[in-house]
Amino acid sequence: MSYDALNALLSARHSCRAFRPDPVPREQIEQILSAAQRVPSWCNAQPWEVIITSGSETDSFREALQHEVATGAPKPDLPFPSAYTGVYQDRRRTCGWALYEAVGVEKGDRAGSARQMMQNFALFGAPHCAILHSPADLGPYGAMDTGGYVTAFTLAAQALGVATIPQAAVASYGPFLHRYFDIPQDRLILCAISFGYSAPDHPANGFRTERAGIGETVTWRG
Ligand SMILES: Cc1cc2nc3c(=O)[nH]c(=O)nc-3n(C[C@H](O)[C@H](O)[C@H](O)COP(=O)(O)O)c2cc1C
Questions:
Q1: In testing the pocket of ligand 1, which one of 133, 167, 189 has its CB within 8 Å of the most ligand atoms?
Q2: What is its EC number (predicted)?
Q3: β-pair partners for 192
């Protein structure tokens, strides 16, 4: 594969926040999963495990998750960032505002932004959800390896015309997810990836995020 082809794939992938209900054929999901398995991991431990929901299982999960959000309290297995400051706060705000502008939520409209946030727990209407977990013993390194898996999953999906969105928001309800999916306590639930076919004309899909130039992230020595 050429650099240009890879770069085109990386540039085409984006997080999808409105899906059509049609399911992705099992064979294509297996292709995505097989490709994602190729990522590197420390000691080749391949610590990720994935639960994939389809059909009525996705709908039941969506309903149960929304009920949990309405009645329970967030408690992620992996503590959420304590603060976004400086340039990280700026980038976070920029992407949040781009989303709210796209869906017509004005600055200061807390009810509107909360409504959009709640779409996370409706899985943005996706027909499938992947729940990703790794061994607690591997700590942040299991999470790091699984981060690579998330990237490969989303790119392989993009190559097949399947839209994705990684979601930390879903992982904020750790104890519920452990119970619901019978995930042992010695595993950390890291994130979800909702996926399916994009509803491209939906306003929530009407913006793209930017990236810093390498001048902001790289220090050259020598
Ligand atoms: C680990 C991870 C967790 C994320 N969690 C959420 C989430 O809970 N809700 C959401 O709307 N987007 C989530 N995103 C998507 C990011 O906001 C998105 O990747 C970022 O803004 C860059 O935009 P792009 O994916 O369209 O290129 C997550 C992305 C990653 C990698």
A1: 167
A2: 1.6.99.3
A3: 131, 167
